[in-house]
Amino acid sequence: MKFENNVIDLIKKRTSTRTFETKEIELKQLQKLESYLTEINEDAIVLSGIKAKFVLSSFKSTNLKEDKKIGTYGVISGAKTYIVGIVDKDEKNALEFGYLFEKIVLAATDLGLQTCWLGGTFKKSDFVQNMDLPDHETIAIVSPLGYKKKKPRVMETAMRKVIGANKRKPWNELYFDKNIEIPLTEKGADEYAVPLEMVRLGPSASNKQPWRVIKDGEYFHFFLSRTKGYGVAGFDIQLNDIGIAKCHFELSAESLGLYGEWIEKSPGIGSSEWTYVCTWKAEN
User: Fold this and answer.
1) Which range marks the domain in which residue 272 is found?
2) pLDDT at position 83, please?
3) Does the residue 159 lie in any domain?
């Protein structure tokens, strides 16, 4: 599926929505997203090589209390349809999983639908019961899908303030030039200033913003600055966040005509508190 809107505009437009209208999603929008999920599921196997799949799941019931229960996962209200990310229980590649899931989130944004990443704030058991998953699979991430309610609940507004949802770390805390002693400026990033800014705007679990990048010539080395004791049990939610960063960087770069490839080339630089993840090698 080719996005109708520029991906940079989509990244800027996307926000986490927790209060949804209860109306059904238009059939054409669902069909387009289902088609894109088919493409992504093929990419998961062929290109990313991970044992994962992504599906849409609708929770419908004549029991109003049951619908309300489904709609309150992760302090979510009103949503009846979810994007569900499923992995084999032995799959550890949270990086590629996050990369693919964020592509779906941006596709939904392109269709005029709102989303919200949910990692540890939903009941997996109820989703499993509705989907009848085999024993070897588990649900890693879900996102509600639908139309944002014009007036958010007081709880949602308060929650966004608590986690600082609209706040982002400044460039000098995230990006560096050749070593961690020299912050990378937007001028120093040159044509890659916009892709790096799109990384900075990306969503992350509890808004931790764990990505760090060192520019070294044509190489952009991506690191994980992990919050100790956070998001490591089961599915690695912070490595997943680096997948989101990878997605934003690649798609926004390519939209500007900047091409390259992802490689593993540990530079032997960086902080001892960071974990090297991957490198973008820009084409000359």
Assistant:
1) 171-282
2) 96
3) no
